[in-house]
Amino acid sequence: DSGVTQTPKHLITATGQRVTLRCSPRSGDLSVYWYQQSLDQGLQFLIQYYNGEERAKGNILERFSAQQFPDLHSELNLSSLELGDSALYFCASGALGLNTEAFFGQGTRLTVV
Amino acid sequence: QQQVKQSPQSLIVQKGGISIINCAYENTAFDYFPWYQQFPGKGPALLIAIRPDVSEKKEGRFTISFNKSAKQFSLHIMDSQPGDSATYFCAASFDRGSTLGRLYFGRGTQLTVWP
């Protein structure tokens, strides 16, 4: 158990809909990272938050947004969903510093039908 | 643009054999190179990591070899076991600046170890 909790584990929704994925980081970790894993793109970094502020942005679509709350949990919002958004979405948490180990949650499998 | 290239895509090894997975990177500013192991239905988990100031790091049956001049690094799994069957990802990261902790992953290698 990595200590990172993601909910829900599975999500099935229709095209055009909006969903919210939730992540609770490991106790004490201030950084949250979101990754998308798909067969054609592999593991792609989406966005990073550190202590409530956006820190880095990767290949995140404009239809997607994220935030980190004062209690450090994070949410990834995906809107106007398309079939191609079907993927595994991972949250990872870690600390800034020399030890850049990222601890991954078990992921949310999103299926858009 | 894939900043970290990984090969092979899949690997089949007999129990007791050596599994070797190779990665190459482009950006010489990378200074942290972890390997992650992922089992079906699970998230990636850190296996072993190396920094570019050393050429080799060993932890149990797992060894990373690092060649800074060639911009390549590899994972060797000695005495491979069926329980090692998983997908392995190499990655690279900057250990400073605004992208601290952001990982650039290779595409993964699916390892199957035959009993």
Give a concise summary:
The complex is a heterodimer of chains A (113) and B (115). By secondary structure, chain A is mainly β.
Structure description:
Chain A has 113 residues and is mainly β. Chain A has strands at 5-7, 10-13, 19-24, 31-38, 42-50, 53-57, 64-68, 74-78, 87-94, 103-104, 108-112. Helix content of chain A is 0%, strand content 53%. In chain A, strands 2, 4, 5, 6, 9, 10 and 11 form a 7-stranded mixed beta sheet that branches. In chain A, strands 1-3-8-7 form a 4-stranded antiparallel beta sheet, with no helix packed on it. In chain A, a hairpin with an 8-residue loop joins strand 9 and strand 10. Chain A is globular. The mean pLDDT of chain A is 93. By secondary structure, chain B is mostly beta strands. Helices cover 0% and strands 51% of the residues of chain B. Chain B has strands at residues 4-7, 10-14, 19-25, 33-38, 45-50, 56-59, 62-67, 72-77, 86-92, 104-105, 109-114. The mean pLDDT of chain B is 93. The chains are: A mainly beta (113), B mainly beta (115).
